[in-house]
Amino acid sequence: MRRSLCAAIVPIAVFCAFACDQESTRVAGVTQAEREGYIGSGSCQSCHPDHHASWSRTFHRTMTQNASEEAVLGPFDGRAITYLGTRAEMRRDGEDFVIRTTDPSGASREDVVTKTVGSRRTQQYLAERDGETVRLPIAYHVEEERFFHMNGAFLTRDPESEPASPQDYERHVTRWNDNCVFCHNVRPNPGRDEGAFDTTVAELGIACEACHGPGQNHASANRDPLRRYRLHLSDDADETIVNAARLDPERSADICGRCHGQRLTDNVARFLQEGDPFVPGENLAEYSEPLFCDSTLGGREAFAERFYLDGTARLTAYEFQGLLQSPCANPRPNPPRATPSAAHGNDALTCTSCHGMHEGDPRGQLRDVFAEQPDAMCTSCHADTSALPGHRLHPETEIACVDCHMPRVVFGVIDVHRSHRIEVPRPVLHDRAERLDACSLCHVEHPPSWSARALLQEVTAPDTDGGRDQPLLTRLFTGDAITRAVAATALGRVQDNARTRGALLTLMARDPYPAIRRVAYRALRKRVPALAVDDFDPLGSTATRRDQIAALRDRVPHQVVSPPPSAFPADDIEIGE
Amino acid sequence: MTQEAQHTACTKWGYPQLFLGALFGVALEAAHGFKVVAYLENDLTRLLLTLAHAHAVGLALVVLVWGGSGAALFDREPVALGRALRVGALLIPLGFALSAIQHPEGDPNLAIALVPIGAALVLVNLGATAWRALKA
Question: What digits encode the pLDDT tens for the residues B85-98?
Fold first, then answer.
């Protein structure tokens, strides 16, 4: 009998000892994030396997990762690229992923990749330099399956000299600790202290607690099965965790706006020392305000280039601003934070009206319900409007609501995306704002005034004077960098003919911005699928590109298009990030 | 006489349960073999059904063993204990199986409450039998 009791007690004692040991280990290594109740997505998985699985397949999960066989998408197999005289070789050194650069003078350096950022379109690489984590100048283009230099990722010109100076080569090497870290991780804290960084995150990438807040209280409380079943059987909210679906539209959008809306804070020092204090469910405006075209930094308007003249964002990561400016989310007109409108009230549009974080194609994450019927995003509220005679000028099988009301005029990550400012297409007004209008993105040979008249909108004489009222095929050359990128991308979707192919070839040959040459070539490849990615290197040397363009002109049937005298404005914008 | 009555009752109960439990196991294997998505896609469902199969078979054997030897340890016919064991042996696999149907994420449905009830009944029987065995 005594022996039996001993046999029963020993396992219990071992279990208790193990449990105590686990607790003491955790406390000994406690971090700021742990003190604040962050426990990591692994702790959520056992109770929420479906949600964990649906999140795991998103690009949010892989936004930032430690460098590993699984995480690193680029082939570090010894291949190399040479950009403006500097050679970068990507290879393995044991377990390490190494980028070795050798400049024209023969000087070389090796960077060991410690983390990766991104996994959908491009993947950037981070390394440690002098106690800081920096983004390296070489990235991997996932869709094109080739490495490229970051000078080709942003809207910046080619360096003036060839070979490039070291400063030109490292132009886009930026510090991760107080930049990228904020939007690409859970509970980031740069940990800046007298110029040095002790950066911590609760979890790399955008994981559960980025949107639901710290989960420790939730996990602890729900170890009680009676509590869980009480919640299962009721419609009550679990007060221990944030569920965006139960928040009002404004607070729900704040969660996404934290990263999908560039912001300004009055307390930069606090952000750098302690991290972003915003916790999902709170009012984002308590800590920071979204950037708009008239936002000032040090008393001057430093961000105007990021917006069209009518205040519409022309870069990605301003989707939150677009929502705030949209009548559909009218509780917050520009400037935001007004009282809820009578029209929308608590039914106002928010991010999750269209996007589902646990559903849909990871590319865009539109909710499943809209996969077959994208127009339902709008008609679920605007059924009457869409049915008005004359409202829909094109068959719904060809043109969706968002094609006119959310045109693709936003640049980011070497691609062009939909504006998230939902609006009525007004070609002439948009032309005045120096942006391409929705109609011109398809009717590339017609000026905005033609589209406006088709929409029965008024066109006055000044609207067609002073260099205005140019069709997209002209703006392809005379527009600023973003307009050219938007126009080139539009040519990849519509109007395949010899003239548009010729226009794209001319843009590839003449545009001083490598990113625009890249999107132009991608548009051309959509027109001519037989072309291979490697047939044109937008970052190749001038001589290389000249030869490649000549070869492409021989292969691609096209009409020769010469740029107008006002092409490629000398005072063009440059946007590095 | 006491041993014989309980032996009969447990035999009549145990073998059919053993058969049904084994048959259920074959069904689960078939679900694996034919890659039935409804069974494979949800880890908790699979776990609960596997537990239902394992407990159905295991507890059927316990019922048979108890009917064959455990009941004989008692001076008087342990009618209540026999019923407790048999009902418990039924409730546990039934609770696991039923709780796999339309369960909330991460938890079985409310039918899982049958499991601790069944476990209590089985433990009462086994505890009393163990006590009698130690005293014997």
Answer: 999 999 999 999 99
- B85 with B129: CB under 8 angstroms? no
Give which of A177, A172, A130 is closest to A149, Cα–Cα. Answer: A172
Give pTM, 2 decimals: 0.87
B105:A233 CB<8 A: no
The DSSP secondary-structure symbol of A80 reads E
Residue A78 identity (one-letter amino acid): G
Q: Residues A83-127: pLDDT tens digits?
A: 988 999 999 999 999 999 999 999 999 999 999 999 999 999 999
B4-13 burial code (b ≥16 CB/10 A, e <16): eebbebbeeb
ipTM score for this prediction:
0.84
HSE, CB side, 13 Å, CA atoms: give it for residue A178: 15
**For chain A, how big is the Rg over CA atoms in Å?**
26
Q: Work out the widest C-alpha separation in chain B, in whole angstroms.
A: 53
Alpha helices in A332-447 (DSSP H): 351-354, 376-386, 401-405, 427-432
Q: For tokens 């995003």, name the residue.
A: A377
- Residue A331 scores a pLDDT above 70: no
Cβ–Cβ contact B105 with A under 8 A = yes
Residue boundaries of the structural domains of chain B: 2-135
In this predicted structure, what is the pLDDT of residue A27? 38
Terminal-to-terminal C-alpha distance of chain B: 19
Identity at A120, one-letter amino acid code? R
Q: How do residues A447-473 score in pLDDT, each as one tens digit?
A: 999 999 999 888 887 777 777 899 999
**Quick one: pLDDT band at residue A350, thresholds 50, 70, 90?**
very high
What is the per-residue pLDDT across A561-575, written as a single tens digit (0 to 9) for each?
999 999 999 888 888
Question: In this model, does residue A23 exceed pLDDT 60?
Answer: no
Q: List the beta bridge partners of residue A315.
A: A411
Cα-based distances in Å from A241 to A46, A203, A244, A245: 16, 17, 10, 12
What are the E-state strand segments in A367-522? 408-412, 415-418
CA–CA min distance A258, chain B (Å):
28
- Residue B12 tokens read as 């009549």
Element (H, E) at B89: helix B79-99
User: Are the beta carbons of A356 and A349 closer than 8 angstroms?
Assistant: no
Picking from B107, B115, B131 by the largest number of A CB atoms within 10 A of its own CB, the best residue to mutate is: B107
- Window B:12-51, CB contacts with A under 8 Å: 42-44
- Is B110 close to A49, i.e. CB distance below 8 A? no
Residue type, A523: A
d(CA A413, CA A119) in angstroms, rounded, equals 11
Instruction: List, for residues A405-449, the tens digit of each pLDDT value.
Output: 999 999 998 999 999 999 999 999 999 999 999 999 999 999 999
CA distance A468 to A433: 10
